[in-house]
Amino acid sequence: MTKQSNNGAKPETNLYLVGFMGTGKSTIGRMVASRLGFKFLDSDAEIERARGKSVRKIFEQEGEDAFRRYERDFIVDGHPPQRCVVACGGGLITQPGMVDILKAKGVLIALYASPETIIERTSINRARPLLDCDNPEKRIRELMAAREAIYREAGSLVLTDHRSRCEVLAHIQRIYSREVRERGTRKLEE
Ligand code: S3P
Predict the structure, then answer these.
(1) Residue nearest ligand 1's atom 15 by CA
(2) Residue 168 Cα, ligand 1 centroid: separation in angstroms?
(3) Is residue 9 one of the residues assigned to a domain?
């Protein structure tokens, strides 16, 4: 048995929001962080700050593999181990071993939206290099098909289609509280 448990104290465990581009990870993540009194971090924004250039520029100048390495470094040892809500870039979790790394670090919740919703939400800005192509709709469907199983297996899945931000927020808070309790119980039983 380890001594680690919450003992009724406020939870400290990091929350990682994963899911495809346009599922609302950053918007909702900010809201959850403010509710929990945690720091909000967006993996893309943190990488941009550390590298001094946009994700688009990193893709253009250094390639996707370099960007994936920066994502990995940020997750492995580039952010505080507690009291953070982290919105993870859509492809971050698809890297080998990343689901286990994230699960060891905190609670993992995946946001889901249908391809139609994603197409609508992502059409308004061109900041995403993977969708900067002749047929972004086709690309979205291909990428989603390739990644869907990973998002589904990553952790609890929260549907965002036709749900208000407040509804999504409430679901996330409920899942987070339950999973923090379960983690505490698991640690006590070890
Ligand atoms: C990517 C998602 C983006 C960003 C990069 C690659 C992906 O983040 O990390 O453009 O591979 O799905 P968002 O999910 O925040 O758009």
Answers:
(1) 89
(2) 20
(3) no
Atom 4 of ligand 1: nearest residue by CA position: 89
Sheet with 84-87, edge to edge strand ranges = 39-42, 84-87, 14-19, 106-112, 156-159
The pLDDT score that the predictor gives to residue 73 is 98
Q: Which domain holds residue 111?
A: 14-189
**pTM for the full model?**
0.93
Residue 7 lies in a domain: no
CA torsion sign, 23 to 26 to 27 to 30? Answer: positive
To test the ligand 1 pocket, which listed residue (27, 128, 150) has its Cβ within 8 A of the most ligand atoms? 128
Identify the band that residue 183 occupies on the pLDDT scale cut at 50, 70 and 90.
confident
| Residue 109, domain member (yes or no) | yes
> How many domains would you assign to the chain?
1
Q: Tell me, what CATH number does 102's domain have?
A: 3.40.50.300
